[in-house]
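Record minuted for everyone:
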Amino acid sequence: MAVHPYGSVLAMLIVMSGLPGAGKSSVARELGRLLPAPVLSVDPVEAAMWRAGVDRRQPTGLAAYVVVEALASDVLASGQTVIVDAVNDARAAREQWRGLALRRNVVLHYIEVTCSDRTLHRRRLEGRQRDIDGFVEPTWASVEARRTNFDAWDEDRLVLDSAAPLTGNIRIALAHLRDAR
């Protein structure tokens, strides 16, 4: 974390990444509560577009990333830390966040959440109910397809395994963010 000369922490851009159902939103919400920092999630934005009448055949996934980027930019401009909650499986998406951090002159942290236990991952995915009006949850087959096409990382990132307890992962993430100062 960058520190202001008077001791206050400067804004950070924390970007979550991971397959649907891996546990990244749980980590994002808890980090948001503890830091505190707003959590901006791509899925509810995309669902809102559909509810507003934007055709699902349009590139609403890309549009949702752009909307979240604009919102994150405003939050960062006010000097606050922000957490972006999205799959971020494509290099282009991760480059988008790097560009935002550079434009806003803030520290960027990527946190990738994986689940080493595929049975647990599948059970979480198939059992979750996020109450995002109009959003259809992905299938296990679609998650497996995304896993196959997940772009390799070039960026430094913290990797958390959600097969471990959430409390331990949060401690690791907070220590990582604190040590980045």
User: Anything to note?
Assistant: Strands lie at 12-17, 39-41, 82-85, 107-114, 158-161. The longest helix spans residues 60-77. The chain has one domain: 12-179. The radius of gyration is 16 Å.
